[in-house]
Amino acid sequence: MKFLVTGGTGFIGARVVVNLWERKIPVVVADLSLNIEWTKQIALLKHQKDETKLAEIKKQIEQTSFINLDVSNRDEVKNVFAQFADITHVIHLAYLMSAEVEADHHRGASVNMLGMINMFDMVFDHKLARLVFASSETIYGAKHSAYGDENYAVKEEDYCSLDDHFYTYGVMKMLNEFTAQKYIKNKGVSIAAMRPPIVYGDGRMRGSVLWACEFATNPALGKKVKLPFSKDSRDCWIYVDDVAEQFVRLALKPKLNHFAYNNGGHSVTAEELMQTVQSIVPEAEYDFEESVPRTSLIDRCDSSRLEEEIDFIPRSLKDGISTQIEEARNRQLQLNY
């Protein structure tokens, strides 16, 4: 068994790689802009108090191949599979986020559409056991009111019309899923999609949702934070390490019962989110942007399908935020040292 993780030194990808190292599963880490030291640091900080585990992780790092890869370049993709002919599984996370897509639609389509198709072709051409890719809650559109009851948790089979969409990114994810199911039906390959909500944690370095890091990391380091929406804005949040665990478990399970899965998470208002932060860091300072009533995202999603499929329930919101705060402080201590 050997995994290829594309976008493997990104915010979620690095956590997936660390998860595979912890399982002692060989991995090829591919990214357009490799951030190798960042990925190593996540693993080493996490296990710094366990010398035995730390030694094991260091051994896994030494055996890992890190490669530059532009997934939109078909020749580059084919060369990876020629060079590493023993790849059996792929977790595909190489993708341009919403702001990047809107800034450059040509590049966005190249990476997000052609890049995805290049990877789907590799599943068939190299008879891979499975490819799991990141879809998104944005396929459900920009407003929860499209589903009626504000307390309703959106399910995988729920439909959202184009009229209710805001992000080009989300519509691209819809087409990715549609195309994947064509490959499954016509070529008999094993592909699965997960639809994460807001993924929070320490270490986001780019994108339009840096606040999904800053909301807890800033207070951890004694800095004020401002969230760009109202205190009453409701969203669904899930910790980055739990998303990584979900990706790996879904990739490893021999047989799946479905194609698409909601990751789940905790539905809270922005005020409830920051009250949770303040319960851990009492001196936390924060403001909201009350002129922006809500984010352009759904408020709740049902995760029972995925929980049943992989037998995993994400940690509580408080536990996730506590872990993020501890990691941010440990990283700062290391920098100061």
UniProtKB/TrEMBL annotation:
Residues 4-255 form the NAD-dependent epimerase/dehydratase domain. Gene3D superfamilies: NAD(P)-binding Rossmann-like Domain (3.40.50.720). It holds the Pfam family Epimerase. Keywords: Carbohydrate metabolism, NADP. This is NAD-dependent epimerase/dehydratase domain-containing protein. It comes from Flavobacterium seoulense.
